[in-house]
Structures are given as C-alpha cells and as structure tokens.
Sequence to fold (374 residues):
Amino acid sequence: MTSKMASKEKRTVLVTGGCGFIGSNFVRLLLAERPHWSIINLDLLTYAGNPENLADVAENPQYRFVQGDIADPALVRKLLAEEVWAVVNFAAETHVDRSILDSGEFVRTNVLGTEKLLAAALAAKVPRFLQVSTDEVYGSLGERGAFSEEDVLAPSSPYAASKAAADLLALTFCKTFGVTALVTRSSNNYGPYQFPEKVIPLFITNALADQPLPLYGDGLNVRDWLYVEDNCRAILRVLEQAQAGSIYNVGGGHEMTNLALTELLLDALGKPRSLIRFVPDRLGHDRRYSLNCRRVFRELGWQPLVGFQGGLERTIHWYVENRSWWERVRSGSFRSYYRTQYGDRLAEGKGLETGSGKPAEAEPRQPEDRRADG
Fold:
C-alpha cells in the first residue's frame, strides 16, 4: 500500500499517549499528512502529558481528545467500538531515572497497560496495532557494532525492562492470537515539546536559566540522536506498510558522547562550559547505544530527513522562543523531582578544569561489548 493511496482513505486511529512528546508530534503529522483520517487521542495526562502540546490542533474536526487510562478496559473497548483501524501505543512511563526511583508505575503502565490495550484490540478485531518502543531494550553496547532486530533483549533499567516486556506482549498477541502487531524501536529522540527531564531539553533550559548542567559520570556515554519528526514519519511508514509481527529499528545515524553534546549545546547558546557539573553516575547506566537500521531502509524505504545540526538548531530555537511553556512545566512537581534526583549529586559534582574540556576527576569506565553488528 502506498502512502499516496492511504492518504485518500478515511480511517480512524487511536493514538495513546498523544499529549506526550513523540505522541503529540505524531498526531500533528497525521493531521497534516493524512487529513482524511480521524484521530482519537487517549491520554491519562500524567506529569509529562500536556494538553498544551496540541493546543494548536484542538479545534480540528478530525481530532478528539479523551482523558483516560489505557489500563481501563471499559473505556478502551468503548473507543475501539468506533471502527478503529489502528492503535498506535505511545502511552508509557519513559524516564530511566524515575524508574530507578520507583519502578511500580512503569510496570503498571508499560506492561499491564499494554496488555489491557492489546486484549481490547484483539476483542475489537482492530486491523493494526503498533507498539512504539526504544533501543534501550537491547541493553549496553561496546565501542563497535550496532544492534539488529534479531539481537537478544538485555535491558539494564526497570524502564527498559518494562518496554521489553511490552514489545514481547505485542509480538505474542500477534503469534498466538493473530493481532497484526508491529514494533518500532527508536534511538534517542529530540525536538520540540519534549519534557525537560530528558537531557537535551534539561540542558537547554538549565543553560537558558544559567543553572548548572548535571552530567553523569565521565560524560562519555554514547547515544544516537533522531529528530522526532523523522521518527514519526518512520512510525507512519511502518503502520501503513509493514507485515504482521515486524520489528523495525529506527535510528538517526548520529552518535556522540553526552559530553560532546553538552558542549555543543552550551556553545550554541553562548553559555560557558563552566556550567557543566560532572555528577555521580546513575545506576546501571548503559555505555553506548547504536542501531542497525538496514531493515527499515531496505524494506520500507525510510531514511531520516533532518540532519543532526539542523534538527538541534530547530530544537534550541523552539525552547528559546517558548520559554513560557518550559517555565510552566518546570514548576511544581518537577522541582521536587529535580531536587530528589540531582540535589545531592550537584553538591558532590565537579566543574570542568579551566580549558581542559574534561572532568576534574573522571573515572573512565571500560564499556561492555555484548553485541556485534547484525
């Protein structure tokens, strides 16, 4: 099925977690590129779910917001009765640090919630179910190679374990019950509307407020960065074209250390690198992620369109121009979380040595090499 054909068909899609970062960008993409589709956005509006993220489309006749829980079977059944063609499940607790503080909500939402959603989709005979996942399910990687879709899952954090469980549930419902389940696993997303607990918006907003940037460990952990709009386009491509039971890695192809990223952000904002504070590392911190994305390139013809430099410039510009948005979300409970997560760490942390570009007392760690290029 081509995208051109699909764009002319009237369909109803249930997007769960659509008021979050990636979900809200996906809803906006659907409304722009599939104008004949109807979108139901089911979101519980936890701390990271923000109706402001979709305020500009709230009056669109093709869009409807419903506040509720994916773990509420009666509500989900009612929504799926509206001849829903597909479920795209973004609803999840997503922050590793919070999962270390309290794993319970991650199991409840990411595992039990996904199971309830899958069961409802099965009962309603929904034609397609897409589970949105993460590269973190694979665990840590050494200096070389990349994860392929066939690699064994080896999550390091309660968050990653809960997402791995959700992936396996979706694939099990496909194999056992015939649900047309699909899974996408993306690398680190960045872009507008991202809640400022994640590293790029946290460091941008801290820098704009002239506050220290708490950088874990030696800062040499490596991540691959993917602009959120590119991920949303990949998700749409998989939703429309992939075969049942398919898994697709979706990466940006731009790896860099957290230290290099932090320095890049400070330089772009015209802020001094002395704002960097090296703080005690978090538990179970994966050293490197990298995705082999040949399958999605080869089978579906997707590739990222936004280069890292251009995407980062867009992202920084958005946070500079939308200061009122992030100042509101950084208040209240966020401040309490920030004190819990970083208060003691910042007290123990060290800044950069003048002109060194390295932490004052870094303890470099040897990366684990558990995967080879698939």
